[in-house]
Design a protein that fits this description.
six-stranded antiparallel beta sheet, 4 helices, 23% helix, alpha+beta, Thiol Ester Dehydrase, Chain A
């Protein structure tokens, strides 16, 4: 399903996105090194083994990016003008290599754009869950979407 236009959303709309993703060691390693994050909890198995987690914890900014990415196909693909911001990003549980993540989205707010009469602003609440149905990431994403063509 392609993304929806602003006019096609209603507050309270919910989507359980079909795409799931199992996080790999390569995902974590590449993302962490590409973003120049030297945190040994994400890169050093010996170090991580000595922490309360007992193993490598997946980089939280990867989890956040995946949260948004898994939602795009059903929300803003082809209809996005711009993402305007992200708020209230929380990560209540860690993600580990081998966890399979899925995302659910709810529309929290809608408003017409003051600067663009052919667009509107949607605030999505994204919630990412692992295979144990534990919330591992949640956030609000505010996006400007095109209005439905006439």
């Amino acid at each position: 399903m392609a993304g929806r236009y602003f006019d096609e959303w209603m507050v309270g709309d919910r989507i359980a996105h079909d795409i799931r993703r199992t996080v790999t060691e390569t995902d974590n390693l590449l993302f962490t090194t590409l973003s120049h994050n030297p945190q040994p909890l994400h890169l050093d198995a010996e170090y991580a083994a000595g922490t309360e987690f007992g193993r490598i914890v997946v980089n939280g900014t990867f989890t956040f990016a995946l949260t948004v990415g898994l939602s795009v196909g059903d929300t803003t693909l082809g209809t996005l003008v711009a993402n305007l911001g992200y708020d209230k990003v929380t990560m209540p549980k860690p993600v580990f290599i081998g966890d399979t993540l899925r995302v659910e989205t709810e529309v929290m707010e809608l408003r017409r754009s003051n600067s663009r009469p052919d667009a509107g602003i949607v605030t999505f609440r994204h919630v990412t869950l692992n295979q144990r149905d534990e919330i591992v990431c949640q956030c609000l994403r505010t996006a400007m979407l095109k209005g439905k063509p006439s």
